[in-house]
Amino acid sequence: MSKLVTELHIIGENGNMFDTDMEYIIPLYQRAYAWEDKQLTQLIEDINDVAEDSNYYIGSLIVSKQFGRYEVVDGQQRLTSLYLLLNCLGIKTKPTLTFACREKSNYTLRNIEELLLENRSKIDMDRIEPGIQRGIRILSHELTKDHFDRESFMEKLAKIIVYRIEVPENTDLNRYYEIMNTRGEQLEQHDILKATLMSYLSDDSEKGLFAKIWDACSDMTGYVQMHFISKNNAVREAIFGSKWNSMPPNSWQKYKKAISGTTQETTGHKICDLIEKNFKVEDDEGYVDGDVRVRFESVIEFPYFLLHTLKVYVSLYGVTHEIATSKIVDELLDDKKLLDAFNRVVSCGITDTGRIADSKEDFARGFIICLLRTRYLFDKYIIKREYANDSADGEWSLKSLYASGQQSKKKAYYGNSKFTRPGERTRTNDWRTKTNIMMQSALRVSYTSPKVMHWITKLLIWLSEADCKNIKNDAITKFDKVAENIAIDAVRENFFQVCSNGVYAMGVNTPHIVFNYLDYLLWNDDRNGKKKKYSDFVFEFRNSVEHWYPQNPSEGTFEQWKDGVDQFGNLCIIQRNVNSKFSNMSPEAKKSTFKDMIVKGSIKLRIMSELTEKNGDKPASLYWKERAYKAHEEEMLGHLKKACNIE
User: I need a labelling partner for 403 at 20 to 30 A (CA). Which of 63, 168, 466, 570 fits?
Assistant: First the structure.
């Protein structure tokens, strides 16, 4: 880590982060302390969410060393809150936090203990700063709630770290503060990671090259090719070829040649360009057939993409932990542990060529190349949301970027990514593209948290392995099967192996992937058949597992079903926003009341609705409970068992 970056533990064996001989001073140009309920309760929740196995980054503190003390440039609200928190927990702190020219603030900090004990006779309440007093009251209230577990909280607090970052000497602090204030946000972990990895490179030109590739990859809007801007598209074509669609090279020297200080331009523009009559800003938008303008939105943000790429790097280079029994990367993709994840790989990782810690410069070069190549594969083969013209309604998309036109007049256009062998028809490719879109979107809506989108990692590793051999041969025609096998493994492990003795009654705990993979199978069977009933079906965020025959019938209007209500045949998946209205109605009432939702909903739900009919003199609800649900369940399980190769 850079000499200007220090890892501070909030509490540790040797005291706490304020046990220092160096004073932190909040300069007068900073606003007064202003955190309220929302921010302080979130701080407590963040600490309570910490896992026991690793450190947890909670923010950065930007400081400037001035006359033997740290002037806080950014992060004072969090710093002050942590100071208050430690005191509210009864942890003694040195008086190392002060406010410049704010006597009330300093008086309040020095009398926290008396405020907590409500010893008003010992303090002058007219000298108390209201904002800090309010913060003490909020924190004290949170820490004294009945469910608060102090011992567990203290263990987790010991895992919390803050990165103190010193700005270089001679930095224009007024200009720096102006920029930070305009951004209105903390320096992010990926900013610190960028600086750390760049510090491994000794050559300034290589640092510049690293930064240009990093900055292009960090912009998750659009396609990465569009973030390399240069005169006559020289850099873009040197990296991605004349059609802007070739795999980036795997050679550091080729990047040094392609991106020199004289060819790469910034994303800004010169005044002489701006005043030109025909000046137009190049953006990430492009066109599809029929001159429809499109834009794209990534399914993950950059910090998570970095974690996916780190796992790709570990897989490609066979990185293992120097302690054989320890994991080199966590399973969970936790953006709060981004720095911890990279620090572990650099500090503890070994490959066939030796310890990564002994060749950090090579790691920085290798990782930035891996980052760009992985981003290229991500853009081309992992689904995005596509928006046409000015529409706010997006759709799932798997497209590749190409260039049309000549020389400096080239423009981006987008066509379906290729999943065919050479010579196969466009129609065949369109068919496979649709299959890939449906399978990936089924995975996407099943795993809504970016922390558990392991399917993306697995697909990126498959695309990257052996110098991307799978995209250079006929294997790419089976890419949908690679994604489908991820779903199959999840359904086997989390459904079939959990349910025993032929009883499939997980109720609302049934994993969403089971419903979505089943819908994929039903859609695919329908597409290959003659009826084409489900050609309009798309995967959406249906996040609530519900009972078709309810657990608790409305006001006792029909009898309760006690012994089979949780069976898979009686379950469906719907949008959460209709949950409260939907839950207690009878099947026939749901069918008539929610028919607009049902006709656009899950395929399993549509089938359940169609089967809800009276039989002879038996009402639909009763017949569903006694007979229909079971036949439906056997049919649906039959589809799943066949696909998952379950006997």
Answer: 466
Cα 458 from Cα 428, distance rounded (Å): 25
What does each C-alpha distance from 175 to 60, 71, 164, 270 come to in angstroms?
Answer: 19, 15, 20, 21
| Angle at CA of residue 278, ends 272 and 281, nearest 5° | 75
Three-class SS state of 561: coil
Token couple for 347? 């500090």
> What does the pLDDT look like over 237-291, one tens digit per residue?
999 999 999 999 999 999 998 886 434 444 444 434 433 444 444 444 566 655 7
Residue 318 neighbours by CB under 8 Å, 6+ apart: 351, 352
Tell me the three-class secondary structure of 448-498, residue by residue. Answer: CCHHHCHHHHHHHHHHHHHHHHHHCCHHHHHHHHHHHHHHHHHHHHHHHCC
Looking up tokens 């607009």, which residue turns up? 596
Q: Shortest CA distance to 363 belongs to which of 196, 243, 589?
A: 196
Max CA separation in the chain (angstroms): 91
- Residue for token pair 């990564």: 356
Cα separation, 640 vs 569, in Å, equals 13
pLDDT of 321 over the 60 cut: yes
Rounded Cα distance between 242 and 534, Å, is: 41
The string of pLDDT tens digits covering residues 208-223 is: 899 899 999 999 989 9
In the three-class reduction of DSSP (H, G, I as helix; E, B as strand; rest coil), residue 413 is classed as strand
What value, to the nearest 5°, has the Cα angle with vertex 220 and ends 215 and 222? 110
Of 639, 566, 573, 636, the closest CA to residue 602 belongs to 573
Contact in structure between 366 and 351 (CB atoms under 8 Å):
no
- Per-residue pLDDT of 395-423, as tens digits, reads 999 999 999 888 777 889 999 999 999 88
Identify the pLDDT of residue 56: 82
Positive/negative CA dihedral, 188, 193, 196, 198: negative
The pLDDT value recorded for residue 167 is 83
Residues in contact with 276: Cβ distance below 8 Å, sequence separation at least 6, in sequence order: none
